[in-house]
Each structure stands twice: as C-alpha cells, then as structure tokens.
Amino acid sequence: MRRVLPRSWVLALAALLAAGHLDAQTKLLRFPDIQGDRVVFTYAGDLWTAPATGGTAVRITAAPGEELFGRFSPDGKTIAFTGQYDGDEQVYVMAAGGGVPKQLTFYPARGPLPPRWGYDNQVYGWTVDGRAVLFRSLRDSWDLGDSKLYTVPAAGGMPEALPMPQSGAGAFSPDGKRMVYSPLFRDFRAWKRYKGGWAQDLWIFDLSGKQAKQITDYPGADRDPMWIGDRIYFTSDRDGHLNIYAYDPASGQTTQLTHHTTWDVRWPSDDGQGRIVYELGGELHVLDIGSGQDRKIDIYGPDDLVAKRPSHIDVQRYVEDYALAPEGQRALFVARGDVFSAPIEHGRTLDLTQSSGAHDKWARWSPDGRTIAFISDMSGEEELYVMEANGSGEPQQITTDDHMMLYWPEWSPDSKRIAFGDKEGRLWVVEV
What we know:
mainly beta; four-stranded antiparallel β-sheet; 1 helix; 37 strands; elongated
C-alpha cells in the first residue's frame, strides 16, 4: 500500500530540506567571480558554480590538482582559470556549464611555490572584448617578486606582456585603454596591518601613451583593483580591516563602501556592471554598488568530504616534540596535535590526550614521574594542562583566559610548580 502525502505536506518538507541545506552553509569558499545569475568559486581545490542568489552549488572540475581563480568571460559563456592538470599551473578555459578544459599557456610554471608566494599563471580576468584572458606570470621574472601581467588569446596563441615593468593584480578600464594595477604582489602574505616597504599602492597606466599615475598613497594596503564605470574599486585596511573603497579618478575622492570589523574582505571580483562578489570569513558576499546593499550568499556544496571521515593515521612522520620520562623507560612524543607515551623497549604506546579537535603540544614529564604537563587550545585558547602519566582520568586545566600563545612548560624539581612563557616574552610560575 502507498500513502499519498497532501501537497501542502510535500511543500513543507521541501522547505525544511532546503532550510537544512542553507543551515549547512559550506565554508572555505575562495576566489569568487560573478556574472549574470551565477557565481563561480573554488572549494576543496575544485571549481564550483552556484546561483548568485544562493542555493546548491555544482562542481564543474574534479581533477587531483587544484583549479583556482575562475573568471567568467564578459558574455558569461566561458570560464578562465588557473589549473594544475599536468604537474604545474597553467591558464585554461572551459564552458561555464562544464566541459573539457582547453590549455592556453605552456611555458613551465615556477613552483610549487611556498604559500606566501601564491601561484604562477594566476588568472585575473578578461580583456574588455572577451577575446583574451588576463593573467599574472613569473615567466620573465628574475625572482619571485617581479611578476608581470599578460594576456593570452582565448582561441589559442602566444601570450603578450602588458607594458608595465612589474605588476601584481590589475584590471582594464571599461574602454580597454587604461589599466589600474598594483606594482607589488603580496596577496598571499599573512602580514596583517602591514605598513612597510611591501605595502601596496594602486596606479593607473595608459596603455597607448605608456604613462603611469599613482592614485593611492596610504601607508598600508591598497589592493585588489576593479574598474567599474567611471570609478575604481579596491580593498584597503585603512580602518583596521580590509574593506571595499571607491575611488573617483575625476575628483580624486575615495569613499568607503563596506565596514566589516571581524573579518577582512578577500579576493573581490566584479561583473563589470555594478556587483562585486567577495570572500568574508570563508563565505561569499555580493555588494551592489548602486544601492549599497551588501548581502551574504548562502551556498551549500554537496560533497562526500572524505577528509572528514575518521581514519587511522601513521603519526611517526609528524613528530614535532619529545621528552624522556625521569627513569628513561618511556618517552613522550607530540604528533598531529596529540600527546603519546611510548615505551623505550617493551610495552604499548598510549595516546594520552586523544583530542583530534585540539592542538596539544610541548608535553613534559614531572620529575616524580606521575604527571604530564602540556599546552593545549582545547578550550579555544592556549592554556596549561596536567594529566596522569598513565593516561587515566581527564586533563585538568591549570590556567584560564590568557588569550595568547604559551610556550614550553618546565617543572620544578619537587614537581609542585610549573614555569612557562607567553608570546609577550613574560615568564610565569604556577603552583600545580
């Protein structure tokens, strides 16, 4: 027998399922772009597209390497991106709905690069007419800090260097005759609120007259340029966080558009019409520059998340610290965030902390051999803990609310006190 549900029940169930998807907002969405009713972004090393209003995403690449920096062509039919299909990073194009990627660049890429240097052959967008892809490359560079911008025909052909002698991110003016760009590239550096010699400024370059004009001089970061209509949009940390600003070339006036105070605005990109999509705290936002409306896009990326499955890990290759027991019969090892007690000759290895969700480190045996002291962030902040050396019982938190990194606990000879340092260079002593 079959039971037929009333239509109202079916609609209610569908709404609940949709709400469940939206409640499970997928995080770590990066390098977005927007065109028409779709956004493209990188998640888990692959390219995905989703409705610009939010909803369920569709994966359009699935290679073992990473596919990054997806950018829609002006007509929205094609996506250019940086792909790692054949061992290094090259520029590719593919149909916006998915298909066989077509390789456009072939000069061997630098790398793999340390994370602070980002990627070679990084795609930034398209020429105004949609015939060529704009990308940054190290192909003609003497060192990693001397990248340049190039274009390569989407139909295939030789890349052509733009005339700026050195450049990081850049974008064409709506008429294609000028370019706004940053001569420096440090977009993957972790230097927050940095105001040194690598602080980025923005310039306008006249492609026909070969003239450059500096348009920002803030001591901190002015970066991620976009040119929409008669204004230039960019991110700057001049209020303490990276937010979006608008610059009027005619008047020289700069106006702040977003005011985020928790997370930085990262990797903004625009549709050339009036919308900017960007990453904020691992989620995507869309800013309508006409109305000033800034909204978060709720996106659900259906994935099996294999890396989140419980599994057995051989940790011997990940040992970061060790300490001997007072009698020398056992040793402590710290690996992958857990503290292990291992026999020197006979016995079994114990995982003392078993805390997959925390980073336990700097474990030290008390002189009487009864207690283990270690630093852990299992509370959300790094604190000092002690526990029985045989693994019985639960760890006991000794310090509270330090809100800073702690270092290297050392026991007193009578096993009654522990000394440790903090990131401010201070030395503490606590009675256990």
